[in-house]
Amino acid sequence: MAATPVMQLPVISECAAESCAYNHDHTCHAAAITVGDLSSPVCDTFVGADLEGGEPSVTGRVGACKMADCRHNTGLECHAPSITVGYEEEQVDCLTYAQT
């Protein structure tokens, strides 16, 4: 399968992780995040810090997804039109994750 062009990577439509260095006004500004740790759809890029990260003119996208059992995942790449990131209990997860 061919790689997904960067401009077609799924956009992060909303991020509720306000304590993340990449989050400004519910918008992720990381160029691309990684989702999953092989057992849960955690946002692997989350950085809980007082620093400001990312590029203000960029809306975050999904660069890689380790959740091979997600219906949006093909070849460890997300093919959802967009995703939402937020809290699932105590951790920051991809809320668009849907197990196959």
Automatic annotation (TrEMBL):
Where does the record place the DUF1540 domain?
Answer: 15-45, 65-97
Domain of life from the UniProt record: Bacteria
Under the heading InterPro entries, the entry gives: DUF1540
**Pfam families on file:** DUF1540 (PF07561)
Q: What name is this protein filed under?
A: DUF1540 domain-containing protein
